Amino acid sequence: MGTNNFKEQIKPFFWVEHESTVSVCLNVGEYKTEIFQSRVHFIGVTPGCAEDIMLTFLWLDEDDRSTIHLFQLVRNPGKCNASDDKSVRYYDNDDWPAHAPVGMWLEYGLVNDFMREWCLRKEQLKNGEISEDEYFEWKINWPATSSKVDYNGKDDKKCSYQWRKK
Description:
It is a single chain. The protein is mainly alpha-helical. It is about 35% helix and about 5% strand. The protein has helices at about 5-10, 35-45, 50-65, 110-125, 130-140, and strands spanning about 15, 20-25. Strands 1-2 form a two-stranded antiparallel sheet. The chain is globular. The mean pLDDT is about 75.
């Protein structure tokens, strides 16, 4: 296959060569419905569903591990609706960016469950409990590697695909 034919075959994506890697990119506004629909065919998830949201996050993380930082929020035992203050505070240190980050929560129970597990996997990687290879294996085979993690971070370790090395 010639270079021109390759460029035509991957449209609307385009190929960018870097010093030691390559990227397959897509211009803003060109993410067409048929591309979303192809995800349904290849990985069996419906665009916009909980699994699709997670796969998007997981691939952003794979592209640049320093992009997404996860942490479990802890409920403040104070009165509910006692204040209109919606700010969440953090201790400024080297783990945070120079500018105040923007936070977000999703009121989508299944996505929250998936995010809780992902938060645990990133912590396990950071603490050396799992290797880079195991973390990648977990992501690349997700959601088959997914297991239930409770609010205390306890993993039931029941998944349909065994991703951890024994």
